[in-house]
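Q: How do we represent a protein-ligand complex in a form that can be generated token by token?
A: Start from the inputs.
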Amino acid sequence: MKQKLVIIGNGMAPGRMLEHLFDMDPEACDVTIFNAEPRVNYNRLMLSPVLSGEKTYSDIVTHDDDWYEEHSVTLHKGARVAKIDREAKKVTAENGVTADYNKLVIATGSLPIMIPLPGHTLDGVLVYRDLDDVDKMLAAAKAGGRAVVIGGGLLGLEAAAGLREQGMEVTVLHLMPTLMERQLDPTAGHLLEDAIAGRGIEVITEANTEEILEKDGRVAGVLLDDGRKIVASIVVMAVGIRPSTALAGSADIDCNRGIVVGDDMRTSDPDIYALGECIEHRGLCYGLVAPLYEMAKVLAENLLGGRAEYNGSVTATKLKVTGIDLYSAGDFADDEDREEIVLRDGKAGIYKRLVLKDNRIIGAVLYGEASDGPWFFDLLKKQTDIAPMRDTLIFGQAYQGGAPLDPTAAVAALPDDAEICGCNGICKSQITSAIAEKSLTTLDGVRAYTKASSSCGTCTGLVEQLLTVTLGDGYKPAAVTPVCGCTDLGHDDVRHLIRAKGLKTLPAVLQALEWKTSCGCAKCRPALNYYLVCDWPDVYRDDYQSRFINERVHANIQKDGTYSVVPRMWGGVTSAAELRKIADVVDKFDIPTVKVTGGQRIDMLGVRKEDLPAVWADLGEAGFVSGHAYAKGLRTVKTCVGTDWCRFGTQDSTGLGIRIEKFMWGSWTPAKVKMAVSGCPRNCAEATCKDIGVICLDSGYEIHFAGAAGLDIKGTEILGRVRSEDETIEHISALTQMYREQGHYLERIYKWAKRIGLEEIRRQIMEDTEARRGYFDRFVLSQKFAQVDPWSERVSGKDKHEFVPMSDLTLEAAE
Amino acid sequence: MNAMPENWVRVGRLSDIPRRGARRVQSGAITIAIFRTAEDRILALEDKCPHKQGPLSQGIIHGDCVTCPLHNWVISLETGQAQGPDEGAAMSFPVRLEGDDIQIDFNFQSDLRKTA
Ligand code: SRM
Ligand SMILES: Cc1cc2nc3c(=O)[nH]c(=O)nc-3n(C[C@H](O)[C@H](O)[C@H](O)COP(=O)(O)OP(=O)(O)OC[C@H]3O[C@@H](n4cnc5c(N)ncnc54)[C@H](O)[C@@H]3O)c2cc1C
Ligand code: SF4
Ligand code: FES
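Then emit the structure tokens for the protein with siroheme bound:
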């Protein structure tokens, strides 16, 4: 007699299982299926193309009505099973339909998780699981407006892309710092974010939704915990799935997170099997179809009396958003015993990363070009020893014995109108055509014909690469010292490429400039962070994790791990009230040392890190702000007493020093900048050994620069003379900005000046009014964003985590 | 010595630590630095550089190493070993992630505390 097989749920897993079953033995079972959804079996994976309009429902049907008839399967559509009676071996649906079984398969899939935020039951709050959900989204899209998608995982992004295709404005809210963080490493996550943003979808990361807002009984928007409100006409919750176990649980079948099955796919009841997303096997639940298909095969065999075993699966993910190529598999975390191979092609937007352990692939992330995904995945699953093809592995299956990556590729890829020489306004095509037309073969030749690289010289590396690109092996460029081991590019090239390619985030730089490590090192990250701060003051978000500790916590670390605190004393002038406040702070926080510095101000040394915000809060009451004694930025402006008191004073040197300091504080520079203003050539403020100095004269102001008095001792050079304080400030600011834009990270002004040439600097700042105004205006713009007192920011709570230990186990242990 | 039973204690949440950042946990006289890498791995070392006791929690984190803030030694987060030509090691601690919770094996530390 045929055995009676009843299946609860008609999803992708049992669909595949039945195909195997009928292939092996079409006559063995008499099959009855109950499906809560009022329809046949369809390909759930393809719901996103239906949502975006690329496919219709009929395109994605897997088994149509004829198929069920052909295989004599009874399908109860729209019939949700409410009860399993294990004694009587019988199931009953909500609509009263019953069926007896010899063998039962539970394949109830999973349920989308709905976070119980206030407002989650409102009309217009949707999930994304089945065709009905797609229909609801399509209906909402017709009405237009904005959709908020909560969750930047696979499903959330597919929903977002589909809704955008349907003409809605879309915002994706994601709790973590990068998208799809479980499948992608941070670099790929950032690239994905850029691509998603490029489709006009707004992505907000680290967004914690607090409430869904209501108007007239419907969704009106969402409120984030930082107070931001986003108006929306629908909210799609796509934050994850939970195995659907309620029915099995109510029949006392063993369940943990999912319905527990053994390797034979049997539940705790020997006549009941479970299959698909609803199960838990060896402690794991799955949310992708590949493992379910493996289970389906095992179960089909076992239903026919076989002894097949399911041994668990490794999974790979691919995002199905048209035009975005993304693949990830395995485990891609860094680890001591792991190595990585990274390939970045900035031009083509490709990022590939393989994580290896003992010459076996254990993880792969592919972005931009994912066609080798299955091949890598196969090597991963089979644990193939890749040692023999290690050198060419990353290039993929088709690659045979390739050349090493070309470091000039980034330059070759620049558009023809990319500016190469900023001083002379020369673009790429002017240089390459001069090389071709005039048969140039040397740097000097290019300089003579185009003027490129003949002024400040910071574009020399790029011009040399253009020679290489145009002439091939015929040109041998001078060796550039790379920024660090993570790249072959030197500082100048990096700075130029950041501007030419409009790179505005750290991950974008690492990708476009083809960094060889996934997240840089302690040498390059602070440099890149500075270059980005300098070039994009209005949009770049400072990366504190790429700053040296002093700049991260705005205090100088000392040899015992305590900190020193140096408030600004503008121009070295203080008052009784300020001194009294310092004395009180020293007493209150038991600060061991108070010292007058070489920079005309007071240093409190030995402050405990936990006390810093409180110390700053107290100092702030007397009007003190950070002295940036820790910064690659403006330090002090020393002054002398000038016309206020001194019998020789020619100008108000104290007042000018204070003006300069108040105008320029807060600016970040390649290395520290120290200044001084002396009231007469007797030079009591030692202005002639500073980065920038001013000597007051009867007739005006003599501006000096490029002095040094630290590791090297060097008197300043004269930049030129000006007549008024205003002019002094304009010239000094312009000079500083020129240095900010051209200096290599950690290169003091005197070294930069030597590299660029004093004449060129004098020409641009003293003679070329337009150039000077340009520098000055850019300096002023960047100060708008830089002049925020970091101490008061932290007193009011910013980066609180920096100052308090995460926890104190001493206390717990004492309990 | 007898093996102590494990005793995992929660010391904070993953989200308490910024990516490529670190936080300190105080345990008696010992300060433990808990690091979160760019890849969201969690690792723990005593907050003491093998060179001159610099607080490693204050360094720059890159890959699975931290660069000490005092004199730029590079220390492996996994083993505590100084990299390159430098020699020495910071003590490393068993730490794990349970969901969002960061946990340290507390018995291991109470052992240490006796010797500290
Ligand atoms: C506090 C102070 C010494 C003092 O007690 O007077 C001092 C203290 C330090 N100096 Fe200095 N310098 C101090 C004035 C100077 C001066 C004199 C001046 O500014 O008029 C110089 C020579 C001028 C110059 O900068 O060229 C000076 C040349 C240096 C150098 C060598 C820089 C160079 O490129 O040659 C370093 C090392 C470095 O920056 O890499 C340095 C580095 C340091 C550091 C930051 C060492 C460090 O990295 O931890 C010290 C930090 C102490 C702290 O935590 O506060 N300090 N240092 C002075 C603070 C001035 C201020 O109010 O901000
Ligand atoms: C939009 C979308 C895109 C996806 N994209 C991918 C992808 O690209 N790659 C990939 O690998 N995976 C993808 N998935 C996941 C994949 O679709 C699932 O892993 C797979 O469909 C699960 O199959 P299943 O048979 O276990 O469950 P389901 O397909 O969910 O089927 C379960 C069925 O059981 C029914 N049911 C539940 N309870 C009862 C009951 N008591 N009585 C009767 N019927 C009941 C449900 O209504 C449902 O129809 C995607 C999922 C979605 C929603
Ligand atoms: S001179 Fe040397 S020891 Fe003295 S403060 Fe400057 S860096 Fe420190
Ligand atoms: S204390 Fe860490 S490098 Fe010196």
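The pocket of flavin-adenine dinucleotide (ligand 2) is lined by residues A 8-14, 34-37, 44-45, 47-48, 80-81, 107-109, 128-129, 155, 158, 244, 247, 276-277, 287-290, 292, 320 (CB under 6 Å). Chain B has one domain: 9-115.
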